[in-house]
Give the backbone structure.
Amino acid sequence: MFAILRDEESCICRTDVSVSTGSQVSVLCPHGSANANIHWFTATPNPSRSIYKPFIFAKDVDIGTMTASPVYGDKDPVKEKPRFQRTVERRHALYCAHENVPPLGPNPNAKLLAELNSLEAKSVMNVKKLCDQSSPEVKHLFPDAVQEELKLHQKHSKD
């Protein structure tokens, strides 16, 4: 499913003017199964340049802060009156890091793609090991995967 959702030739994965805004794959287990339903999210606009990160609904689950829109507290322009008089940065840290990686284009960065594939495969293996929802590690699967991808994108950043 990951490969299908990354298929740019078929236009399933849009990288032109109308860019894909994220992608999700869910593995749903039969009702009453001991295994957890696992949801995989990119949390970035281009699935072909991002890994699918696992998320399992569990008590006290942690989604981290790297995929949350910045919060400005009392200084948030959305709360000001008149509203929307200025532009506010709403992109999250992973999204920004993703934007700073040079475009893959017709000659993709083979090293980056290999590292993304390796990171995703590692994540899939970790989930297979932690498939039991009662495992405390499932609470941190998503933010841990986000941190790993963020490091990788920062390493390959065009800055």
About this structure: The mean pLDDT is 78.
